[in-house]
Design goal:
GO terms for molecular function: lyase activity. By secondary structure, this protein is an alpha+beta fold. The chain contains 18 helices and 20 strands. It folds into three domains: about 250 residues, Beta-galactosidase, Chain A, domain 5 (Distorted Sandwich), CATH 2.70.98.70; about 150 residues, no CATH class; about 140 residues, Alpha/alpha barrel (Glycosyltransferase), CATH 1.50.10. About 35% of the residues lie in helices and about 20% in strands. The strands form five sheets. The protein has an eight-stranded antiparallel beta sheet with strand order 10-11-12-13-20-17-16-15, with no helix packed on it. Strands 3-4-5-6 form a four-stranded antiparallel beta sheet, with no helix packed on it. Helix 6 packs across helix 10. The longest helix is centred in the middle third of the chain and has 20 residues.
C-alpha cells in the first residue's frame, strides 16, 4: 500500500531550535545510564582521566585565590617578533584553491562579522557595535554556536576572501576591536573553566585564525597590533597546557595544527610549539587513520577538516625544514581516500555527522593539497581494515555499501546507526542519500539523524541496533562482517547479540546487474517479528508509483525519469517523506520508501538506471 500524504511523526520535529537542553544527561536521565555505562566502558584511560581532571578544574580553579590570567600574561615576552612569511605563503595557497563561490561567501560573512552580525547553524544574532558575550540568545542556541563565535571565524573569512589587508581597513579595525573587547571580558580562570571562551577546541581555532591574520597583515606592510600578537601568544600558552588528549579525534588534530602555526609565527622565541604539534600529528597519524586512508570517525566532513589541517601542517613544517615524512604519508593517503570517495558526484556523501557548508568543498581541499605539493596515494576502498565504504559501479552510476563499523568504539560522538546502509548515484547525480546532521544538541532531530530509521538499511522491529541518547552517547556495540567481496558482488552481515535483550542478524547482499543494482535483505530473529527496509531519496528527485503496481516506482529529476525501483518479497510498501539535514540548522523533506516483511523472509530491491524522458 502506498501513502502519499504521511509525513514523519511530529515527535521527530518538536524541538526547532534546541529547546531540549540536557547539559548533563549522564546524571539527570536514568534512561541514559546504560548508554553512559557502555560509553565509559569503551573509553581509554586517558579519556576518563581527562574527564575527571576537567571537572575538578572547573570546580576548583575559579575558587582559588590565584589570578591565572595574570600568570599567563606574565609569560608573554615583553618584545614579540614574528616570522609571517611561511604562514602567508600557505594562506595564499589556500585562498587560491577556493572556488569563486566560496570566496564570495566568505567575503559577505566577513563584512557581516565586522558589522556585528553573526550567522552560524542558520541562526543569527545582530550584536551591533559591541558583542555581548553573555547575550541570552547565545545560550538558547546550540553550544556549537558559541564555540564558533568565540573562535573568531570573522578573521579567517576576511583573510580567505581578500588578498590585500590594506583595502579593508574598516573591517580589520572592527574585528580587532571585537578581539580586544573579548579579551577584557573573558580572562582565564574566571567563571566556567575550560568551558565557554576557554574550551581548548575554540582556543585552537582562534589561534590558527589569528596567526593567519597576523601573517596576512604583516605581509602587506600593515601594522599588526602588539596587543593582538600578545593575545595569540597567551592563547597558545593556554593551549599548550590543555591539549585535548581526553577527547582525541579531530579535536586533537586541531590542537596540533594551532600549535604548529603559533610556533612558526613566533619562530624566534623558541617556544617548542612546532615540535609539540608535530608529535601530536604523528600520534594521530598512527591512531586515527585507517588502512584505506580514511579518518577513523568515518565522517567525510571531518575527513576534509583533518586532511586540510595535515596539509597546512605539512606545508608550514616543511618551510622550517622539520621532518615531515609521517605527516606527508598520512596526508597523501587521506587525499587518495577523498579522491575516491567523491568520484560518483564530486561532493562528499553525508555519512555519519556530515553536512555541507561547514568544511571547505571537497574539490577545494584536493586543490589545496596539490598546492602544498601533496599527491594522492590511493588504496582500495575494499581494504578489510578500511572505513568499510565500498563501491559497486556500472556504466550508469555507483552504489556505496557501508560494511564497516559505525566508528571507533572509544569515540562514538559522530557515529550513526548506519550498519549495511547504501547510497546511490546515477550519472553523477544523487538518488539515495544519507540524512546529514541538524546540530549536536540532545534533541529529537539529533536522535532521528543518528537512528537506524534515518538510513538506507533494515531495522528489526522498532529496535535501534546500538542504543543512542544524549548528544553523543552510544550503548553496547554490534558487529559487522563481510562474508564475500567479489567483483560486482558484496555480501555482509550485521549482528546484535544480547543475553537479556533482543538478538537478530541482518544479511544484505549487493550486486551489479545488467541494468543497475540488486539488493537482497534477510533478517532473522523472533519468527513472530517483522523488519523494515527503508530507502531515503535525495530531495532533488521525485518518486512516484508506476501505473497500478504498488511494488514498482519511478524516480525523476526535473521531469525526466532517471531510474526505476522494483521490490519483491513483500507487498507492504509505503511511500512517505522524511527529514534531510544538508546543512547545520536547515531541514527539508525528501521521499522515502519503506518495506515491511516478516522475519526470515527475503526482500529483494532492484534499482535500474533509466534516461528515458517523459
Amino acid at each position: 500500500m502506498t501513502d502519499r500524504t504521511e509525513t514523519p511523526s511530529n515527535r521527530v520535529l518538536s524541538d526547532p531550535i534546541g529547546t531540549v537542553r540536557q547539559s548533563d544527561r549522564l546524571v539527570t536521565t536514568p534512561g541514559d545510564w546504560p548508554l553512559a555505562y557502555h560509553t565509559v566502558r569503551n573509553m581509554k584511560p586517558v579519556q576518563i582521566a581527562g574527564i575527571i581532571e576537567r571537572r575538578l578544574r572547573h570546580a576548583v580553579v575559579p575558587r582559588l585565590p590565584v589570578d591565572f590570567n595574570a600568570r599567563y600574561e606574565r609569560r608573554v615576552p615583553d618584545e614579540l617578533s614574528i616570522t609571517p612569511e611561511p604562514i602567508r605563503a600557505n594562506l595564499t595557497k589556500l585562498r587560491e584553491s577556493l572556488t569563486e563561490a566560496e570566496r564570495a561567501r566568505y567575503r559577505e560573512a566577513a563584512s557581516e562579522a565586522a558589522n556585528g552580525r553573526f550567522t552560524f547553524l542558520d541562526r543569527a544574532i545582530d550584536f551591533g557595535d559591541r558583542i555581548d558575550w553573555n547575550h541570552e540568545r547565545i545560550d538558547e542556541y546550540p553550544r556549537l554556536w558559541r564555540l564558533k563565535l568565540e573562535s573568531f571565524q570573522g578573521f579567517e573569512w576576511l583573510v580567505l576572501s581578500e588578498e590585500s589587508a590594506s583595502t579593508v581597513d574598516d573591517h580589520r579595525a572592527a574585528l580587532e576591536r571585537q578581539a580586544f573587547e573579548w579579551d577584557a571580558a573573558n580572562p582565564i580562570g574566571e567563571g566556567p573553566y575550560l568551558r565557554r571562551s576557554w574550551i581548548p577546541h575554540a582556543v585552537s581555532l582562534r589561534v590558527l585564525h589569528w596567526c593567519r591574520y597576523a601573517a596576512w597583515c604583516a605581509g602587506d606592510t600593515v601594522t599588526v597590533p602588539d596587543r593582538l600578537l600578545r593575545l595569540v601568544y597567551k592563547n597558545a600558552l593556554f593551549l599548550e597546557n590543555h591539549v585535548e588528549h581526553d577527547i582525541g579525534g579531530n579535536h586533537l588534530i586541531e590542537n596540533a595544527v594551532a600549535l604548529v602555526a603559533a610556533g612558526v609565527l613566533f619562530g624566534d622565541h623558541d617556544t617548542g610549539w612546532e615540535s609539540m604539534g608535530l608529535d601530536l600529528l604523528e600520534e594521530a597519524a598512527r591512531k586515527q587513520f585507517l588502512a584505506d586512508g580514511g579518518h577513523f570517525e568515518r565522517s567525510p566532513m571531518y575527513h576534509i577538516t583533518v586532511l586540510r589541517r595535515y596539509a597546512t601542517a605539512y606545508d608550514l613544517l616543511s618551510s622550517n625544514e622539520l621532518s615531515t615524512t609521517v605527516i606527508e604519508t598520512t596526508a597523501e593517503l587521506a587525499l587518495g581516500f577523498l579522491s575516491q570517495l567523491i568520484k560518483p558526484g564530486g561532493k562528499i556523501p553525508l555519512l555519519n555527522d556530515s553536512a555541507y557548508g561547514e568544511a571547505i568543498e571537497a574539490t577545494t581541499c584536493l586543490a589545496y593539497c596539490r598546492a602544498c605539493s601533496l599527491t594522492p596515494t590511493e588504496r582500495s576502498l575494499h581494504h578489510p581494515d578500511g572505513t568499510g565504504y565500498r563501491t559497486l559501479s556500472t556504466d550508469t552510476g555507483t552504489l556505496l555499501f557501508d560494511v564497516g563499523d559505525v566508528g571507533p568504539t572509544h569515540l562514538p560522538a559522530h557515529s550513526h546507526n548506519d550498519q549495511l546502509s547504501v547510497l546511490l548515484w546515477v550519472d553523477g547525480d544523487p538518488v539515495l542519500a544519507d540524512t546529514g546532521v541538524y546540530d549536536y544538541e540532545a534533541n529529537e532531530r539529533r536522535q532521528y539523524a543518528r537512528s537506524v530509521a534515518a538510513h538506507n538499511t533494515a531495522q528489526y522491529g522498532g529496535i535501534e541496533p546500538i542504543p543512542i541518547g544524549g548528544s553523543f552517547l552510544m550503548g553496547k556495540r554490534t558487529s559487522v562482517s563481510v562474508v564475500d567481496d567479489d567483483p560486482g558482488r558484496i555480501e555482509a552481515r550485521h549482528s546484535r547479540r544480547s543475553i537479556a535483550g533482543t538478538s537478530y542478524e541482518h544479511r544484505r547482499t549487493v550486486a551489479t546487474i545488467d541494468s543497475g543494482w540488486e539488493i537482497a535483505d534477510t533478517v532473522t530473529g523472533d519468527p513472530a517479528a517483522t523488519y523494515t527496509v527503508r530507502y531515503h531519496f535525495h530531495p532533488t528527485t521525485d518518486v512516484c508509483e508506476s501505473s497500478d503496481d504498488a511494488t514498482e516506482f519511478s524516480v525523476r529529476r526535473d521531469g525526466d525519469r532517471i531510474a526505476s525501483v522494483r521490490f519483491s518479497g513483500t507487498d507492504r510498501v509505503r511511500l512517505t517523506q522524511t527529514p534531510y539535514f544538508e546543512e547545520y540548522g536547515r531541514e527539508q523533506f525528501r521521499a522515502m520508501i519503506a518495506l515491511k516483511a516478516s522475519t526470515g523472509s527475503d526482500v529483494v530491491t532492484r534499482f535500474s538506471a533509466d534516461t528515458v524522458s517523459g
